[in-house]
Amino acid sequence: MKRFIYIIVACFALASCTNELEVEFETETPISLNDDLNLTDGIIIGEKLRNPYSLEVMKQACDMLYPPTRGEAPVSDTLIVPNVKYVRFLPTDSVEYRLLMDSDLELFNYPLDYDILGDPSDYHDPNLPPEQITWQYTVVPIEQTLPSVNRVEVLGTGFIPNSGKNTIGNVDLTAVERCANILVFNGGSTTSTPATVTAPCTGKIRVYDTANSCNVGVKGVKVRARYYWKIRTVYTNEEGAYYMSMGDFEGLNPRFELRFENKYGFKLGYN
């Protein structure tokens, strides 16, 4: 089975977000990046989290900000309706696995609604045999047709405000999303707010060229940001630099990952 190598790209709640990662290698022999990055050896799945994008939480937040008037249905009944579905696939063989990898889906080999600690690259569902390909998780629009894989499970549905359409009528969906995040962070109250990232996240991904004794930018590496079910991606440019606006994560603190293989065919190594 083909493995993906991930690196967690830290993005802190500061006035700016800049990262530079240098990966040094001299041969095509597989290397471990965990030691250099002080990552946990393997991933640790913690407790199941309350999801701010669940219909329950989003409706609660909407009703708090826009209380229903007497005799009228809550505005949340018409606005907070499922627009995404949380899905997982279990490929039966390498053909189905490649079908998933060649799709446009943002796939994760670990569940997206649990607390995650450590490096996710080696995670394998403990309920599956070691030789079997593990579950692949993703979030897609509610109407999207899913790849034809033998075993597919829809684990839930939710509501994520669309980018660029933050107001419907007099309802500010950005404010509703922020309130839902605060409710989850505080276990149901709104007394304090979590740390947030607001400035753009930028950085460079470079490898060390031993022949010319210099760092070389790596083009086409995918950087992913995820907050529960909200996922955004960017690619590095010719110099290995990336830029990700945090507009879609206003009031949130996403988890960042760097993926060393993507649809452009990049693989870690000289070629």
Rough shape? Answer: globular
Major β-sheet profile:
4 strands, antiparallel
**Spans with pLDDT under 50 lasting ≥5 residues?**
1-16, 24-41
Q: Mean of the pLDDT scores?
A: 77
Tally of DSSP helical segments = 5
DSSP summary, beta strand count: 15
Order of helices and strands: EEHEHHEHEEEEEHEEEEEE
Rg over CA atoms, rounded to whole Å, is: 20 Å
- Broad structural category: alpha+beta
Q: Report the β-strand fraction as a percent range.
A: 25-35%
Q: Tell me roughly what share of residues is in helical segments.
A: 10-25%
Straight-line N-to-C gap: 20 Å
Give your account of this protein's structure.
It is a single chain. The chain is α+β, with helices and mostly antiparallel strands and 271 residues long. Helices cover 15% and strands 30% of the residues. The chain is built from 5 helices and 15 strands. The strands form 5 sheets. The protein has a 4-stranded antiparallel beta sheet with strand order 1-15-12-13, with no helix packed on it. It is globular, with a radius of gyration of 20 Å. The protein starts with 5 loop residues before the first strand and ends in a 12-residue tail after the last strand.
Structure in a nutshell:
With 271 residues, this protein is an alpha+beta fold. 15% of the residues lie in helices and 30% in strands.
Main features:
271 residues; alpha+beta; four-stranded antiparallel β-sheet; 5 helices; 15% helix; globular
Which secondary structure elements does this structure contain, and how are they paired or packed?
Blueprint: E1 6-8, E2 17-24, H1 34-37, E3 43-48, H2 55-65, H3 76-79, E4 84-90, H4 94-101, E5 114-118, E6 136-141, E7 151-158, E8 167-168, E9 171-172, H5 173-185, E10 201-209, E11 214-217, E12 222-227, E13 230-235, E14 241-244, E15 255-259
Parallel strand pairs: 2-10
Antiparallel strand pairs: 1-15, 3-5, 4-6, 4-7, 8-9, 10-11, 10-14, 12-13, 12-15
